[in-house]
Amino acid sequence: MHPSLERAIAKYMPDGLIPPEYKEFISVIDRAYIRSEEDRTLIERSLELASKELNERNKALKQKKQEVELEVIAKTKELHEKVIDLAEVNAKTELVFNSMGEALIAFDPTGKVLFFNERAHTMFALTPSVVGLLWTDIFTLEDKNSHPISIELALMGKTPHSENAIYEPLVYLVAKNGKRIPVAITSAPLIVGDHPQGWVTLFRDIKADLEIDQAKTEFVSLASHQMRTPLTAIKGYTSMLLEGDGGEISDKQRIYLAAIERSNNRMVDLINALLNASRIELGVFAIEPKPINIVEVADIAITELNVQIVQREIVFSKNYTEVPNTINADPHLTKIIFQNLISNAIKYTPKGGAVSLSLSGTPNGLSIEVSDTGIGIPKNEQSKIFTKLFRADNARITETEGTGLGLYIVKSVVEESGGEIFFESEENKGTRFFVSLPVSGMKQRKGTRGLQ
Amino acid sequence: MHISQSQWSEKNGWKHLAPTDPTPQIVLVFGARTLLTDPTRFAEIKNLYPKSHILLASTAGEILGNKVSDDTIAVTTISFEKTDVKFAQQTCSGINESYESGKIIAGKLDHKGLVHVMAFSEGLKINGTALVKGILEILPPTVSVTGGLVGDGELFKETVVGLDELPTSGNIVLVGFYGEHLRIGYASLGGWDNFGPDRLITKSKGNVLYELDGRNALDLYKEYLGDKAKELPASGLFFPMSLQVIDDSGKEKEVVRTLLGIEEATNGMIFAGDMPEGTYAKLMKVNFDRLIDGATTAANNSVEQFGTKKPEFAILISCIGRKLVLGDRIEEEIDGVLSIIGKDTPITGFYSYGEISPTVPTERQCQLHNQTMTITVFREE
Questions:
Q1: Is residue A404 scored above 50 in pLDDT?
Q2: Judging by DSSP bridges, how do beta strands B252-257 and B114-121 pair with one another?
Q3: Cβ-defined contact of A42 to B196 (cutoff 8 Å)
Q4: Are B328 and A42 an interchain contact pair (Cβ–Cβ within 8 Å)?
Q5: Is there a contact between B349 and B161 (Cβ–Cβ < 8 Å)?
Q6: In angstroms, what CA-CA distances link A369 with A372, A429, B69, B298?
Q7: Per-residue CA distances from A257 to A262, A269, A307 (Å)
Q8: Which of helix, strand or coil describes residue A144?
Q9: Partner-chain contact B226 A57, CB within 8 Å
Q10: Low-confidence ranges of chain B (pLDDT < 50)
Q11: Handedness of CA A82, A84, A88, A94 (dihedral sign)
């Protein structure tokens, strides 16, 4: 029995005894007492345990909070240091960019400006607002005659190390403020991972270089010109001696004099070629077209090369189809074209080979074709064949003599005349050169000099 | 509606509380398991109602009128005037079959004209949550469902359900009510509060709980129960668990779970519904007054739908946890209900291991509840 109930019975029941008829009733009350106490104990216990648990969790949370705070502080410090490092690196990079002597502009794949350096800023008068604009909005490119050059072609992937680099014509950059600057352009793709993400382009102002170049060419011109005088003297006197104007000469003397004459002629050829080249370069040679019989000019050129044709046992053929009787052309320049192309064909064809000259009238004008069965031009050197002083390796081996100027001169003359020149060639099979001259004939051009 | 009630006890034998109706549509028999499985008693009942369907369910206490009894048999007969009644029965072979069994038995019942279903289910070897889910999936959404998981006193050993024959374990019986004249009201309320810290269910399987916060769950209970630990699993009823679950629509809601038993081999704690891993749980303790009030409020909610009209009959399914906690005062909750629905309204019911009812009177889709008093009220119009 519950002690409280016992006490109550002792206190209130007569004699502290339970009447038998109330026994069951009392036991119900006893049960209620005990039950009540049990319930209370359970609740108190629950409260105690739950409080303890909650306190412990609280403590653990506080500790965790402290740990997290310390970590945050450490990480922030780390980040801060990294930011300072980055800023330093950034500053250095910027310094380098902006101290460069070349203008540097980076473009995204669509041609929009990503950034540019100080030199670009001054060269093209760029402002920060050009970032995001297309390259076509900022400048244009043109050649020395103010014909526009495609920007895409000039900028996309042409580097000095590029295998298929084509000789760049002189490029002038025209900024939006009208400034016209001759430039050398080096452009390389920006590769991230495996994908091109745009271009980085360097522009170098080559005005000074051009001036130096010009000075050199003028010097060559001058020197060549001056050298002709003594050479003419040598030629003249040698000729006279050979003709016996200085008296009878011995056989040995004849042999020696002939050798001197040959060497002299070679030097004259070289000087003439140099002179022509320099005059072409300086843009000073004149074109004086007049009605000429082109067949006649061609025949004369062939005749002058007869010695070599016979010597090398070349089978020479001529094909003339619907050639106009007369055509407006500068006879001298036309002869140079024939001379150079045909002498090349002969020079580079082995003994017993074939060379042919074809002339045909076309609706556009005149078409000239010179073909041979010679050593051909190797594919990897074909792109340079028209450059000044260039000789292909196989040509150099075959024939030690040669200026490397012939084709340069022919191309310049043809193009300045308004025509076109191109070729097909296969090593050890042969070469075919094609020249087309316009129907209007050559255009007259005033110049201070003629070509030799 | 016509209701008659009788009771059998060892002491007094059969006592009839109202004139018996010889051919009722339903005969509800609630009583102690050992009494229900006695063929003599069954024969006596069958004799009285040879042409009627007899539904038997073992209890953790029977409710008849305003009295709660143990170790008796409470019989209630029901006849409707304009309402049809049909039955379906299904055996559930194991806890893992709960969902499928729910679907099968719901499919067995005729759906045309069906208004309400009362479910009487095996109480121990079943996953109540899964069972209810399966039933709801097959029944039309307009049909309301109430009912419960039957009990076995405080023994938690074996529960039995039967239809027209001696009841056995693993059984489920559905009673379907058909017709436009039947009015049903229902409500369900608890009276328990959360307390203490959140505990994460870190190890469980279906409705068996193993670990909370990485610690053995049974150890936690033993600590809180102190002396009463030796009365487990019954004493586990003092501390049901409240779970924060995510329902099908993604919303968070609270459900209550009653401890039904201990898995001997693993010391796992068997609850009356799912205990999903990763759910946050709290212990609950009873609020005495709210317990009684809960029953009264539930009664109020259930008749709300009737307006001013009174119900003709009510079935109360109340959780064994409440009986344990209220102890001798258990009849106070019955009194509470009667005070609302009318002192003379016939009622029956039982103490269960789990209750089935919608959470809100207007909600038809029901759930498995624990620790509640669930009321279903009937009226014909």
A1: yes
A2: unpaired
A3: no
A4: no
A5: no
A6: 10, 17, 126, 112
A7: 9, 18, 20
A8: coil
A9: no
A10: none
A11: positive
